[in-house]
Amino acid sequence: MVIITPPRPPPPPPSTEPNQTALPPPHLLLPPPPPPPPPPPPPPLLTTLSLSSLTTPTTTLLLLLLLLLLLLTFSFSAFYLLRPRPRPVYLVDHACFKPPPANKTSRATVVKQFNAYSSPGGGGGDSLDFQRRMLERSGLGEETYFPSSLLSSPINPCMATAREEAEAAVFGSVDVLLAKTGLPAKEIGIVLVNCSLYNPTPSFSAMIVNSAGLIAIDLAKNLLQVHPNTYALVVSTENMTLNAYLGSNRSMLVTNSLFRMGGAAILLSNRQSDRRHAKYRLIHTVRVHKGSDDRHYTCVTQEEDKEGKVGVALSKDLMSVAGEALKTNITTLGPLVLPISEQLLFLATIVLKKVFNLHIKSYVPDFKLAFEHFCIHAGGRGVLDELEKSLKMTLYRFGNTSSSSLWYELAYCEAKGRIKKGDRVWQIAFGSGFKCNSAVWQAIRTVDRVKENPWIEEIEKFPVHVPKLCQLLHK
After folding, report:
1. DSSP 413-472
2. Which CA distances in Å does 330 have to 327, 338, 425, 433?
């Protein structure tokens, strides 16, 4: 059997139409991807916030904090720019009282006068020997000064002679000061007088106003108000006439051996115009008062002995109390004046001792790097043994003149021509209570010698050697 396959039909002829095109591949027929979304718009500014958004608790709190911060910043800036700046205080000049030659007193005369007029049976040989030994070790010379009331025969301690001594010391220094500065007395607006053991009525300030023509002062108002462009007169003195001790208590006899007649006047100013001719500018003051401790409070007291004789008693704790007060004062002043290197060395020893328990000696800062001159209250020989010769010379020549001793010491440095422009002077004073005060001055100019200086006539004789024990010539 034969199978016959039919022939295949021929392929269709190609299209002859000109506009017909071939279809693209299927993957090309998909739609294009959508474009990327636009970036989010920036956050709206504070000024475009709606009222509803400002009322939310969080936003309200943030606004309040921002407002408070702006207010504090403005207040602090205003306070800093408008705060009252401390006015500079200038030491225009100072003067020390030099008593007349008739008041010169040897140590032997001191012993003779107090022994002759002490209470009968009260002095005795023991008290006389004790006072002699004190004078031999006091560091005082043979030309210190006693008031006339204690040099007369018999001695005459009374209110009238005490006022005579006070007037001599006060006006002897104030008159010299006004003559040196050429300042009319009526220009002085404040008068301050410090004298611990003599408080007459009328007062010292009233006495100066009455006799020197100074304008009267309302002290309470002066303490409560700030006085621009003002001169202040400071007078420092002590009175011996009513405070010489004529009993036998040894703790009270010490003052007879040390205290002498003297006084000083100081003119201060806060006028900017005085800077051109003032001597010094006040840089720092530090005050320490240890009166809260009974041992400090009672180390120097004015009291009566068993016979009713009034005197100033010095306790055996005086030297240690003075040392503690001085240490506190120096610790406070040190960071204000010492170079950073000295402060770091001191701090390092404290850390080694307190933190690491090392047994090392505390570092003593070298204050000679901070000051060129030292004026320390010439209280007694024991206080001055380790100090500069100018301090010993003041005790030797003038004795302990109480608060005015510092100004005799400064006058000594000036008479020696030691004060140069820019030099720093450290004054340290001690007082009952117990107090220790410091003042730091800087010389505005080189200080020249002047004829009104109490040392000027004999400055070439100093310094002199002062032995620790100087035998007393018996008379």
Report:
1. HHHTT---TT-EEEEEEEETTTEEEEEEEEESSPPPP-TTSTTTTTGGG-S----S--PP
2. 5, 10, 14, 18
pLDDT of residue 217: 29
Token readout for 444 is 């505005």
Percentage of the chain exceeding pLDDT 70:
80
CATH homologous superfamily for the domain 90-461: Thiolase/Chalcone synthase (3.40.47.10)
Q: How long a stretch of residues is the chain? A: 475
Query: Residue 456: phi, psi to the nearest 5?
Result: -60, -35
Token code pair at residue 190: 């404040």
Q: Per-residue pLDDT tens for 314-330? A: 888 888 898 899 889 98
Q: What is the pLDDT of residues 195-237, one digit of tens each?
A: 888 888 777 777 776 554 333 323 333 433 456 788 888 899 9
Q: Which two tokens stand for residue 110?
A: 């001191």
**Which one-letter DSSP state was computed for residue 22?**
P
Q: Is the dihedral of CA 301, 305, 310, 312 positive or negative?
A: negative
In angstroms, the CA 106 to CA 367 distance is 36
- H/E stretch holding 96 reads strand 90-96
Strand, helix or coil for residue 265: strand
Report the distance separating Cα 32 and Cα 34, nearest Å: 6
How many whole angstroms separate alpha carbon 206 and alpha carbon 210?
A: 6
Backbone angles phi, psi at 149, to 5 degrees: -65, -25
Q: Which residues contact 402 (CB under 8 A, 6 or more apart)?
A: 195, 196, 236, 237, 238, 259, 262
Closest CA to 300 of 292, 311, 309: 311
State mean pLDDT over 399-424.
Answer: 94
CA atoms in the 13 A half-sphere facing the CB of 441: 25
pLDDT digits (tens, 9 = 90+) for 62-109: 888 888 888 888 888 887 777 767 778 899 999 999 999 999 999 999
| pTM score of the predicted model | 0.78
Q: β-strand 231-237 against 188-194: which pairing, if any?
A: parallel
pLDDT at residue 459, rounded to an integer: 94
Distance CA 117, CA 241 (A): 13
